[in-house]
Amino acid sequence: MARDHSIVNISLPGGNVITTSPVTHRTSTPLSPHVLVIGGGVTGLVTSWVLLDRGYRVTILSKAWANKSASSRLTSQIAGALWEYPPAVCGSHTDEVSLRRSKEWAMDSYHAWQALARSDIAKEVGVKMVRSAFFFATSVKDDEKQMEKMLEIQGSGVQGFQHSPSIISEMGVDPKCGAADAYELLAPAIDSDQAMHWLMDLVQSKGARLVTEELHDDLVLLEQSLRARFRADAIVNCTGLASLTLANDSKCYPLRGGLLRYINDGSKVPKIEHALSISADANAAGEIVFIVPRNDNTLVVGGYAQPDEYELNKNSKSSTVQRMRERAVEFLPELRKMELDPVYPFAQGLRPARKGNVRLERETRKSRSTIVHSYGHGGSGWSFSFGCAAEVADIVGGIIAEGRQRQNRDMIRARL
């Protein structure tokens, strides 16, 4: 039998496998456990994919879905969506346990996105492997934390690692911008618009049911009514910033950001085909620069990270955005020759950040709760997607097993 090159099988932790086939890896039946996933961003969709391929029935409830409107795109669509080893350029970790878990999630996701990028359906998915270079104000060897991170990356299993100051001139970076050292690796770069629509189509083809609705109360208070209404055996919260209310979590906060979108089709100036980032300590203002080829036609350039700012009131002419553009041009002068996309020049959104970083655990405020939380990913939703989804599925499996044991005990007692 000829191999179907459109089907990719991806290995996840614990020997579990997911597939791009519309048929789930483990077949579900009308009697299979049912999971309600709340949230239609990348975290919710990838989590649903993993649950479906473990044989669960899945309903996804979300107030909005991926769309093509410049004014109402989801945060997951606006994201830079370049895979990064944690901590990311626009993020930080103060908790060592959280950082360790994040590295595991990131590497699980790296291998999953890499498998898709190297497949025959990479263009359909919207992912490719690109040279991704990171630039530093001083020699990496003189910065203990950066040196430790670089050595971890080098030994992590990523492809294409190279450390050399020569990357600065090779990639056209102006050394006067503060770059003195650099390293690079091959990283998944995801066209988040394309990938979000592909993920939605995939989970629906596997049987997921989509419900458009917004919840306005603590899930602990809604748990029983939601379980009864959807006949759900477990609930997974992937609502990002909405977890401020839905998980009653005051640690959640927005990290406002924006991206300029350049035409990068090679018609007027040579295409930029690699990603570049410079750390915040390369300039006195602590500002970041990242440049990512989004697809064959678009280059996204950022950025800024403004905590606790909810208003999406910037545009391509705003002073913050103009300063961001100036920094990027100072860093990579060839940007000066490029034109902004006249239809969609600027995208902005709120990264769903959390003090203490990602929360991925079973609900703790109620005994034997069937709620699992996966939120607070900040700017790393795409980078952590598959790793977090696999861990969520493990926790859901434990909840389902616990429920079955309880049912069996109740049946035995009823017979006595």
Report on this model:
The protein is an alpha/beta fold and 416 residues long. It has a single domain (9-406), classed as Rossmann fold (3-Layer(aba) Sandwich), CATH 3.40.50.720. The chain is 33% helix and 24% strand. The strands form three sheets. Strands 5, 6, 7, 10, 11, 12, 13, 14 and 15 form a nine-stranded mixed sheet that branches. Strand 1 and strand 2 (16-19) form a beta hairpin. Belongs to the DAMOX/DASOX family. InterPro entries: DAO, FAD-dep_OxRdtase. Keywords: FAD, Flavoprotein, Oxidoreductase.
Helix content: 25-40%
CATH architecture: 3-Layer(aba) Sandwich
Computed CA radius of gyration, to the nearest angstrom: 22 Å
The overall pLDDT, averaged over residues, is 93
- Low-confidence blocks of residues: none
Order of helices and strands: EEEHEHHHEHEHEHEHEHEEEEEHEEEH
User: How many helical elements?
Assistant: 11
What is the CATH superfamily label?
Answer: NAD(P)-binding Rossmann-like Domain
According to CATH, what is the class? Alpha Beta
Terminal Cα span? 55 Å
* Strand-pairing-aware structural class: alpha/beta
Characterize the biggest β-sheet. 9 strands, mixed
CATH topology: Rossmann fold
- Kindly state the number of beta strands: 17
Protein name: FAD dependent oxidoreductase
Cofactor: FAD
Keywords: FAD, Flavoprotein, Oxidoreductase
GO molecular function: D-amino-acid oxidase activity; FAD binding
